[in-house]
Amino acid sequence: MPLAPSNQTVNASSSPAVNLTTYPGSPPDLTPLAPNPSPGEGHWVPAGRAVDGTWPVWVTTLRPASGGAPSGIARIDTSLVRVVIYAGTTQPAGIWANQGEIPNAGIPKLVAAFNGGFQFGSAGGGFYADGHANPPLVNGAASLVVKADGSAFVAQWGRDAALTPAVTQVRQNLSLMVDGGAVTPAVSSSYWGATITHSAVTWRSGVGSDNAHHLFFVGGPNLTPAALAALLVTAGATRAMEYDINPQWVLFASFTDGPGSPPSTVGAKLLPAMNYPPDHFFYPDWRDFVAIFIKA
User: 30, 53, 201, 204: which has the fewest Cβ within 10 Å?
Assistant: First the structure.
């Protein structure tokens, strides 16, 4: 059985949107996009386990420029952690070293985890791990690239990254929606996935990186591709890609030590309305996902 207790969600009162505490080492607050910002909107608070007294994960919320419900934003310092892409049990096909679920032995060092990308029949790209690719990698595709040192970044495959001994994992999904720190023209197309509402507005998630070893995750409801891309730019991403969409799939959770000896693991969702509980990542699932661990 996983080490985490079943009650791992947070309520709205503990949301980072209303936590006004200033913490040592916090990133500069983000400038809200919507008028009449909510208290704490854009203010970073730490999440997940600390590493040598420093938090690698900071979270906040922002509303898109059009207003409405907030999206959750996470900033991950990949110089302090190890990023691992997990294959699902059936997506992508094959047998992989990291597959299906986070094993019990990994939970005590888990800092955060988040959903993967589209099903590979719709992703327009491939998956690489354990020295081989399936499906094959595609030049030009937006790619989450993990390096041998455990750091990760977002790239356009074939331009910003290629297979070298320093690259250990690649997950591709569509094309870049942010490039050079700007939203790409492609976000106005119908390219960004089928939605259960048959509308461009739905739950969406995206992953970006900057030039200073940070990853950014953005996920929230009622987002168009353009709104998601704008939030990724505001968060600090210079390149970014869409990850999964629709209410069932968007999930980011952070993990900390709870009471007990040895300590238990307690998880918290980035947004309370995200569908699955944090321990979703501790049980076999057919979809891929990304996990963030304290370096050994």
Answer: 53
